[in-house]
Amino acid sequence: MPGFGTTGDYDERAATWDDEPDRRARSQTVARRINDLVGPTPATRVLEYGAGTGLLGFALKPFVGHMTLADISEGMLAQVQKKIAASEMTDVEWRRLDLTTDPLPAERYDLICLQLILHHIMDTDQILTALRACLAPGGVLVVADMDLEDGSFHREAYEGYFGFEREPLGEKVLAAGFASVEFDDVLTVHKVRGGVEREYPMFLMIART
Ligand SMILES: C[S@@+](CC[C@H](N)C(=O)[O-])C[C@H]1O[C@@H](n2cnc3c(N)ncnc32)[C@H](O)[C@@H]1O
After folding, report:
1. In angstroms, what is the span from residue 71 Cα to ligand 1's centroid?
2. Model confidence pTM above 0.90
3. Measuring CA to CA, which residue among 55, 48, 85, 99 is closest to residue 69?
4. Are the C-beta atoms of residues 153 and 164 closer than 8 Å to each other?
5. Nearest CA among 113, 132, 152, 149 for reference residue 34
6. Which residue has its alpha carbon closest to ligand 1 atom 16?
7. Which residues are paired to 205 by β-bridges?
8. N or C, where is the chain less crowded by C-beta within 10 Å?
C-alpha cells in the first residue's frame, strides 16, 4: 500500500527545504535527544528513513557509525547526494527506498530514525512491521512525530494523519514485534496559523527489540 506522500511536492520543495531555520534547529534538538536517550556509538549502523535532505541524519552523524539516508523523492535524494559529496564523510550513503512497496533491503541496522514521516504513511502497522524487520538484534527504532493535532499543521494539500495519540501508537509498536516502547516530550513546533501563533508538541518514540 503506497504512502500518502506525493513525491512531486517534495521534489519541488527539496532545494529550499533547509532554508527554514526552525527546521534545522529541530533536527539538532532531535539528534541530541536521540544521542542522550539511546546512546549510540561509532559502531552503530543507522538508517534514516524518509530522510528528506538528511537534516536529522547529518546532525546525528557525529555520534554514530555508518549512515544510510533513504527517501522516495528524487529531489530530496539529489540534495542528499550534494551534501555527501561536499562533506568529508566517507561512511554516509543514500538510497531510494519505499518500505511500503519495496522488498526489504539486505542490510540490517542498529538504529532506525524517522522524523516527521510516519504521519505520511497510510498503513502504520505495515511500516512498523517492515521497520522492525530491518533492525539487527538489539536494534532500536526512534520516531520523532507530532502528537495528535487539529489538522492545521499542514497548510498545503495534505492527506496524512493529523499526528498520533501515543498510547494507541505504542500498542501498534508492540503488536509489530517490539519488546518495549517509551515516549519523550522532545520539543514543540511553533507555527502562525490565521494570524495566531499555534503550538504543536512533538514526541520522540523509542521502540526497542
Ligand atoms: C515532512 S518530510 C520530512 C523530511 C525529513 N525527515 C525532515 O524532517 O526534514 C517527509 C519525507 O518523507 C518522504 N516520504 C514520503 N513517503 C515516503 C515513503 N513511503 N518512503 C520513504 N520516504 C517517504 C518524502 O519524500 C519526504 O522527504
Report:
1. 6
2. yes
3. 48
4. no
5. 113
6. 5
7. 143, 183
8. N
CATH assignment of 7-193, given 3.30.70.1280, 3.40.50.300, 3.30.499.10, 3.40.50.150? 3.40.50.150
* 61 C-beta neighbours (distance < 10 Å), count: 20
Task: Give the distance (Å) from ligand 1 centre to CA of residue 52.
Answer: 5
Residue 98 Cβ contacting ligand 1 at under 6 Å:
yes
CB 141 within 8 A of CB 112: yes
